[in-house]
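Reminder to self: tokens first, then the designed residues, so the page reads top to bottom the way the pipeline ran.
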């Protein structure tokens, strides 16, 4: 083990032995200090795209991310369990499936609203999404309905239809949406 002595102000105080590993950690921290300070300064300033092309690109990127999360949550925790019969009375794991479906419904509605807002930043995407705002708004109370076990075929199909329409709108505007299943902590906001 390689050791080094930390010096006191006058050299008469107690000495502390540092291992090579500790010295390495200190060196890494010292090197990271300016980078961390710069990152803090950068975080304080919110960057904004300077050109309309950049704004449109970011709008599409955010749209794809939000719509993908909504699609993934809807399929994974609403459509798939419903088709498997998990929401039927007496089904094993029904309560847990309904709670997750309720959370997924609220999450998907929230992400679809965010995706619709993101679409406004790109003219082609905004035009493609405009007819879907009423369909997205119609999903507002379905999370609660799912959680209570009151959702039926029509409710599940409306979620599925809206997601499909949003995916088609994105594809037609050059922003293809791919399902991305959110984590449980994302569903619960944790």
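Designed residues (190 positions):
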């Amino acid at each position: 083990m390689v050791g080094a002595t930390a010096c006191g102000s006058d050299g008469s105080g107690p000495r502390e032995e540092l291992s090579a590993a500790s010295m390495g950690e200190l060196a890494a921290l010292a090197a990271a200090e300016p980078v961390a300070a710069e990152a803090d300064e950068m975080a304080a300033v919110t960057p904004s795209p300077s050109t309309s092309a950049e704004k449109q690109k970011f709008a599409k990127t955010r749209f794809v991310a939000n719509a993908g999360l909504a699609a993934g949550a809807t399929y994974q925790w609403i459509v798939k369990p419903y088709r498997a019969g998990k929401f039927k009375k007496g089904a094993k794991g029904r309560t847990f499936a309904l709670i997750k479906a309720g959370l997924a419904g609220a999450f998907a509605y929230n992400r679809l609203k965010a995706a619709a807002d993101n679409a406004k930043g790109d003219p082609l995407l905004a035009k493609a999404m405009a007819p879907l705002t009423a369909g997205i708004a119609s999903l507002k109370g379905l999370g609660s309905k799912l959680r209570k076990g009151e959702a039926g075929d029509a409710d599940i199909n409306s979620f599925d239809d809206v997601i499909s329409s949003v995916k088609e709108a994105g594809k037609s505007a050059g922003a293809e949406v791919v399902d991305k299943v959110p984590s449980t902590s994302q569903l619960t906001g944790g």
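The longest strand covers residues 3-6.
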